[in-house]
Amino acid sequence: MKIYTRTGDKGQTSIIGGRVEKDDIRVHAYGTIDEVNSFVGQAMLELDPQIFSDVLAELEKIQHELFDCGGDLSTVEGKRPYQVTEEMIDFLEARIDAYIEEAPDLERFILPGGTRASAIIHIARTVTRRAERHIVSLARVESINNIALKYVNRLSDYFFALARVINARQGVKDVEYERSAIVFRDGKRKEK
């Protein structure tokens, strides 16, 4: 099997329903989702299966969903059914709620870090936020699966909650940002 096709040698790539320049906002959106997926894979390698069997199963599920999300973002509207669903968002919200309960109380912003796996999940979180920005830009000029945008927004929240749980399960405290005001009450951000 050959993995090179030479069809992209002039700066274009295929999407589902056409071809676009490789620097098209659509390519930025689904390419950044691919980056997130790679960081998730790296974080998984850092997690002890005896402590994190539940998390590893969740992250593998999320990796498949990220492929679905990337597929939706690389699809011209109407060329195939979208794959990202509200049920995927419901799952993330349930896990976020559970992780907020499991992690120690939080009042202030925290610095990314603690354990190696937590730091990598924080990287996945920030790259997810970048993907979200690209998706918003794409949605301004093209029709997209709006559920995919909502999924990516929720996924970054999931990664924040998960990073804290990874530290907590290993007995490592989160480091609070020393100049932070109190911004969270009961694990949730204060509304202004």
From TrEMBL:
Keyword ATP-binding: yes
Enzyme Commission number(s) of this protein: 2.5.1.17
Pathway assigned in UniProt: Cofactor biosynthesis; adenosylcobalamin biosynthesis; adenosylcobalamin from cob(II)yrinate a,c-diamide: step 2/7
Keyword tags: ATP-binding, Cobalamin biosynthesis, Nucleotide-binding, Transferase
Record InterPro entries: CblAdoTrfase-like, CblAdoTrfase-like_sf, PduO-typ
Family: Belongs to the Cob(I)alamin adenosyltransferase family.
The protein, known as: Corrinoid adenosyltransferase
Organism this protein belongs to: Bacillus mesophilus
